[in-house]
Amino acid sequence: MATFVFCSLNRTAQNAARRSLSSHLPRLAGAAQPLCSAHSPALTLRWLSRGTRFRSQGTPGSSAARATRRGALALGGAAAVTAAAAVAGFLANGNHFQRAEMATRVSTAVEEKEEGDILERCRGFMSPPVTDIAVLQGSKAEMRTRMEMLIMETQAEFCRALQEVDGGTFKVDRWDRKEGGGGISCVMQDGKVFEKAGVNVSVVFGNLTEEAARQMRSRGKVLKGKDGKLPFCAMGVSSVIHPKNPHIPTVHFNYRYFEIEEEDGTKQWWFGGGTDLTPVYINKEDAFHFHNTLKEACDKHHPQYYPDYKKWCDRYFYIRHRGETRGIGGIFFDDLDSPTQEEAFNFVKSCAQTVVPCYLPIVYKHLNDAFTDEEKDWQQVRRGRYVEFNLVYDRGVKFGLATPGSRIESILMSLPLTARWEYMHEPAKGTQEAEMLEVLRNPKEWV
């Protein structure tokens, strides 16, 4: 496991580092050792010298100018612009959701900026990518490369934004899977704002187990293996954020890509994912902002995506044994393999670019809300429901536990640090807690 430190360099040193890195590319392209190996001292030095700027720490409530500058320094390229826009609007004029609108506009302007030097884009990541940079450089046009770059960028953008509001630092934990692939887990615990925040990337490959294949066939997949084997590649970014303040909602998102090679050499592929919100108390303005941000991203691709995927989300995140949803939903989709691979990827990219603007304005809005011991206890009870869904129903958890070599710590990262189960708990009628439960038992249309 390796934790990567980000160093501050002056402009001369940055240029020298870039020239040094560029000079190694021809040799690295044919290197036998993985370029991103955490065990190579030479690589570690090169990665530390890559010109990533150090983010100065600050506390919530600093001036708009300093907050914008810190956000821009923390991220590279498009991620920096998006995160800076996402922070500046709120702090500048007190409008909680203006910066989300700004970030959406910026994302639209930069979303075409996907092609470019792989190495340059990697400098803004929390860690070198799972796949060797030399391999990624040689396969820019392949969907596996494009998706891995997207999930790495999404991880970095979200982590920087969370660090900015919390003041803490993510532990960056690289792990390898002996059956093939690996991942990067970024976790922050016991921060000022977040009790537990995790943002994971995984890129794994090998052969599907029979149990995993059975899960897929139960969803209608026709899988034809050779000699009982089904080679696969699966990658995605997944995050769950559990705040300390019960007035700041928990948020979850996951965007993923699958490829399966069949006996005749053809490949099946599909995308899946979504973003959903789990508040402890209902705030209609927050709910509208969250859902509307997702709707705008969906509407750029098809007017039916949001209503269809909103309903799918309400059905999927349903705790059947409790008769209630996990939260107030968002969007969810799976097995997306149409209309074309390119169009499906562009839709997923638009969704991934909403994770900062749909959530961070809500965090800032409630950052200093006071709360009582009773409200904290209700948060713990709701977290218990969250645990129940993830362990009993969540498809990603089931797939991970059924896949040999999976990293259990990363799979169970989604669970809160603390939770509570009370026997026969039922909130009193007419309370805010009862209002929340009514919404969970009867999902609403927020947009």
What do these coordinates show?
It is a single chain. With 447 residues, this protein is an alpha+beta fold. Helices cover 45% and strands 17% of the residues. The chain is built from 17 helices and nine strands. It has helices spanning 11-29, 41-48, 64-74, 77-93, 98-110, 118-122, 133-137, 143-166, 210-217, 284-299, 305-316, 341-352, 355-365, 373-392, 395-402, 408-411, 432-441, and strands at 171-176, 181-189, 194-207, 231-243, 250-261, 267-278, 318-319, 324-325, 329-336. The radius of gyration is 22 Å and the shape is globular. The termini are far apart.
Residues in helices, as a percent range: 40-55%
How many strand units? 9
The dominant shape is: globular
Are there runs of 5+ residues with pLDDT below 50, and where? 1-94, 98-113
Largest sheet: 7 strands, antiparallel
Sequence of strands across the biggest β-sheet: 1-2-3-4-5-6-9
CATH fold description: oxygen-dependent coproporphyrinogen oxidase
| Structure class | alpha+beta
Gap between N and C termini: 44 Å
Write the H/E string, N to C: HHHHHHHHEEEHEEEHHEEEHHHHHH
Kindly estimate the percentage of residues that lie in beta strands according to DSSP: 15-25%
Query: How many distinct folded domains?
Result: 1
Helix count from the secondary structure assignment: 17
CATH architecture: 3-Layer(aba) Sandwich
Can you identify the CATH superfamily?
A: Coproporphyrinogen III oxidase, aerobic
CATH class: Alpha Beta
Average per-residue pLDDT, rounded, comes to 79
User: How much is the radius of gyration in Å?
Assistant: 22 Å
Pfam family, one: Coprogen_oxidas
Family: Belongs to the aerobic coproporphyrinogen-III oxidase family.
EC number: 1.3.3.3
Protein name: Oxygen-dependent coproporphyrinogen-III oxidase, mitochondrial
